[in-house]
């Protein structure tokens, strides 16, 4: 019978049991446990209850092994029956053991029922039982996969403290992935070094990117630096978004010198930084404007020590000044760039012009442009378009057309966006020059959106209608004077 049970040949087992009955051989606990083992091997759940009742009718008390087989047989059924089996076990005074809880916990873990798995894990601790490796890892993996990295790591600590066994490498990897996805900084610190340093498991680029995001959000420059080291070791090209995470981590940790050094490293590695890269620094200054002077001092200190300071570093601090200080202070900071060894350049000019556009400050924009031209720095397409945008913020915007002509004379092609801005501004002001701009856009780009044209016409007609209504009731000579422009 035992040999048949090991091979899941439960019909053979029951045939032997029937033959025992015919011969008058009384079954004992071993007999019934063998029958239950045969059913458990095959996952035949329902017959196990019949065997249990037959045992009881024969006056044989089941033991823990009996119920373990019954629980194991129910692995193919819904897990809702398991609490009933445990109550029956309690009624008969049969104590659970380590195997009992392992079967229960792994079953609920397979069903992704974290609450019940934890409940039986807690019950196991109350009975001073240590979970088996399978049970412990099943709950840890479930917690990690369900987005509870802190719980998963607490369970890892509990498991490794209570047993001499260590969790498998895959468990640490799952905890790292879960921590990174949840932006759980402390979890990433613990798991990253466990995976990369202790276990020497190379993470893929996707996981590295997730860890970088967590490092950036939690201000963990050491982790971000190590991730970049790993990427380089795996010959994975380091892109702007990789370095941007390190930059943000430095800013959140208030390590501004390291943040500025990161921009230098980017330039040295052929990875261009942009204003988007340095936005985290701007956000920090917006939250604490008093940091602005500290940032300028940091740049001065780096230069005094002979360190290379990337132009983007200056532009980032200048951008912060524009967003948090009056334009007069921003202009003063812009003017100090030359004294700090930074020659007039189109990048810094564009940053300052953006501030002028937001403030509608044409005077400061024209002043900055004049200084740029005096330094014989070439004025590029982007700078001229920004000057057009700056003048379009005013009620009198004739100089916008002057810069448009300057662009065309210099051989630059105005963008669709700048044409659209001119068209909308003119139409909204009731200025018929919007038609000229439409024609120029058609000539340059060979296509004008019908929606744009319709919108411009509607704005123009609405403005003309409003002007006409204000002239109703005017003296005829006064109206004639307005219509002819005083001619």
From TrEMBL:
Gene3D superfamilies: Tetratricopeptide repeat domain
PPR repeats: 28-62, 97-131, 239-273
Chain ranges of the Pentatricopeptide repeat-containing protein-mitochondrial domain: 205-336
One Pfam family hit: TPR_24
Domain of life: Eukaryota
Keyword set, alphabetical order: Repeat
InterPro entries hit by this protein: Mito_RNA-Proc/Resp, PPR_rpt, TPR-like_helical_dom_sf, TPR_mt
GO molecular function per UniProt: mRNA binding
Protein name: Pentatricopeptide repeat-containing protein-mitochondrial domain-containing protein
